[in-house]
Amino acid sequence: MIILGPLLSILIIAIDLYVWAIIISAVLTWLVHFGVVNTRNQFVSMVGEFLWRLTEPALRPIRRFVPNLGGMDISPVVLILLLIFVKMVIGNVHLSLMRASY
To answer: How far does the chain reach from its first CA to its final CA, in angstroms?
Structure first.
């Protein structure tokens, strides 16, 4: 019980950070697609590659099940909703552990 509470808190923080990485990756993709950001810039290229490597393993299985909406990728939205659900479940488990310890 002493270790599980902080571990669940760290897991919730990690989920929040991953959600932000998904959002930033989607926005960067839009900026590159519309020509606002140049991928020839080494920093932009490195950030884009890092975010792609971070988010693509979780987005790829979702893309198999989500229908193609004519060039619009909603897999990040589906993943964010799934992560919010997991975060709520973890929060409820954490809350029940806190109540049980008193």
So the answer is: 11
- Phi and psi angles of residue 8, each rounded to the nearest 5 degrees, phi first: -65, -35
Which residue type sits at 40?
A: R
The number of residues in the chain equals 102
Q: What are phi and psi of 36, to 5 degrees?
A: -80, -35
Predicted TM-score of the model (pTM): 0.89
What's the rounded Cα separation, in Å, for the pair 92 and 101? Answer: 14
Number of domain units in the chain: 1
pLDDT digits over 76-102, tens only?
A: 999 999 999 999 999 999 888 888 776
